């Protein structure tokens, strides 16, 4: 019997008020996907307005709860290089308002940057807590993804034999306004769904599996190559990680079945609808209408940058500055609102320097993410350091003490875990026998049979009777 065999029931980390508060707050932001369009010309307009209202409400509650003991950890805010760079980016963007050709459009665009800044600030503030809330967050996100994809799926099935492909795509976009944006919102949720498949068991695992299949079907039906490739990359990474742990082969099977079903649905419902076959859609060359159209937009944006490389043409000015170029390339009265390249558009509106600052934000975030991936420390290492810091801030909160003990146990540092577990027992707050059971397990691996037997008996007396506790009794109390 190894330490991994001992069942701690996926509840090693107790969910506190902090984690629930953070999960609910982030879930409210994610519900913006369901904000109504209200027949507006700009689909995103009402969503930005809703986000503004949410920011005010969430800001009030965050700063209100900071005063309480429950969110004591939020009282300190650590500034990092990402926050500094984004502040500099906002500064240069704000200056460009004063020479923008359309002042109202510049103010509108800057207001949206401020809203994003507030969201970044909120996320950074929540990261101060670093409570183990990922399981709860994955449940919330997956529920949203399930309803989002279920609505799209039922709408698609009801119209697939009646409406042309472009109308079906309008149905799939829901409130996103664009099929690519809609599929991107689903791709964002995929890692959380896969985490749920990995973490949970029983009916919850079934729910996450069904959600993954449903989301995969919708992504394949959108024919969005970027989103489908992203789905496949994330899935392959998950499969590799599952194969490394040979006891997780069921997860690999779930993902493969989900992708197979999704491709099957795509083949059944779409192969006669586009002019090209399903496989040909992905094999189309780089000179497709969509791709070549974007190349024109990027070339136009580069020309705008050349005209004003250092200061830019002013925030929100792309719609105006692109007209002289697009008027020669289009046969309709419509123009592009965006250049479909945020980095080029930022450089054209606020200058090359600010464009590089904006680009560096993404590079730094990508580098930090990569460092996290290659970091040798385990999740228990990271959580252990977090809980040790939290216990220093609030030593009377026994939940942190118990989680420190669990982290030490998972790291097989049994000598360190036992004192914290005894502190939990002495507090008499948790009288469920779990701490006694973990101490018994620690002594079992330390080959101290008598102590292992005593604490296993104490756990049984408190009605904590997992099968592993009885196994410890058999192996140690009979010696």
Automatic annotation (TrEMBL):
One of its GO terms (molecular function) is ligase activity. The keyword Secreted does not apply. One of its GO terms (cellular component) is membrane. The chain crosses the membrane at residues 12-32, 44-63, 83-100, 106-126, 133-157, 177-197, 206-222, 228-244, 249-266, 351-370. It holds the Pfam family Wzy_C. Keywords: Ligase, Membrane, Transmembrane, Transmembrane helix. It is a multi-pass membrane protein. Gene3D superfamilies: Tetratricopeptide repeat domain. It is found in: Membrane. Its main location: membrane. Residues 211-358 form the O-antigen ligase-related domain. This is O-antigen ligase family protein. The lineage of its organism: Bacteria, Pseudomonadati, Bacteroidota, Flavobacteriia, Flavobacteriales.
């Amino acid at each position: 019997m190894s330490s991994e065999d001992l069942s701690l029931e996926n509840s090693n980390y107790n969910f506190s008020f902090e984690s629930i508060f953070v999960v609910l707050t982030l879930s409210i932001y994610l519900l913006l996907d369901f904000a109504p369009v209200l027949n507006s010309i700009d689909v995103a307009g009402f969503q930005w307005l809703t986000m503004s209202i949410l920011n005010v409400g969430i800001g009030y509650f965050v700063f209100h709860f900071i005063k309480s003991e429950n969110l004591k950890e939020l009282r300190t805010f650590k500034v990092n290089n990402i926050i500094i760079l984004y502040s500099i980016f906002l500064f240069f963007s704000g200056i460009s308002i004063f020479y923008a050709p359309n002042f109202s459009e510049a103010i509108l665009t800057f207001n949206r940057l401020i809203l994003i800044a507030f969201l970044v600030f909120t996320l950074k503030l929540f990261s101060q807590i670093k409570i183990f809330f990922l399981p709860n967050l994955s449940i919330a996100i997956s529920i949203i993804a399930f309803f989002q994809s279920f609505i799209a799926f039922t709408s698609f099935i009801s119209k697939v034999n009646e409406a042309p492909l472009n109308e079906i795509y309008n149905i799939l976009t829901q409130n996103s306004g664009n099929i690519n944006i809609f599929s991107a919102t689903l791709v964002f949720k995929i890692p959380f769904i896969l985490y749920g498949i990995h973490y949970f068991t029983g009916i919850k695992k079934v729910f996450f599996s069904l959600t993954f299949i449903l989301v995969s079907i919708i992504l394949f039906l959108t024919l969005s190559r970027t989103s489908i490739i992203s789905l496949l990359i994330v899935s392959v990474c998950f499969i590799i990680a599952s194969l490394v742990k040979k006891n997780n082969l069921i997860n690999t099977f779930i993902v493969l079945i989900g992708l197979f079903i999704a491709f099957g649905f795509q083949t059944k419902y779409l192969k006669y609808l586009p002019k090209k076959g399903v496989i040909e859609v992905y094999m189309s060359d780089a000179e497709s209408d969509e791709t070549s159209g974007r190349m024109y937009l990027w070339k136009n944006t580069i020309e705008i940058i050349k005209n004003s490389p250092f200061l830019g043409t002013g925030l929100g000015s792309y719609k105006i500055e692109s007209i002289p170029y697009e008027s020669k390339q289009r046969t309709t009265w419509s123009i592009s609102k965006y250049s479909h390249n945020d980095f080029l558009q930022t450089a054209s509106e606020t200058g090359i320097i600010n464009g590089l600052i904006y680009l560096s934000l993404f590079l730094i975030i990508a580098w930090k993410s990569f460092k996290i991936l290659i970091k040798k420390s385990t999740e228990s290492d990271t959580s252990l350091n977090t809980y040790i810091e939290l216990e220093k801030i609030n030593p009377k909160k026994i939940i942190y003490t118990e989680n420190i003990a669990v982290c030490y146990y998972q790291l097989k540092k049994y000598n360190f875990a036992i004192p914290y577990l005894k502190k939990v027992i002495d507090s008499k707050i948790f009288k469920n026998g779990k701490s006694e059971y973990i101490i018994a397990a620690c002594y079992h691996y330390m080959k101290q049979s008598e102590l292992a037997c005593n604490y296993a008996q104490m756990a049984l007396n408190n009605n904590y009777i997992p099968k592993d506790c009885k196994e410890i009794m058999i192996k140690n109390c009979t010696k």
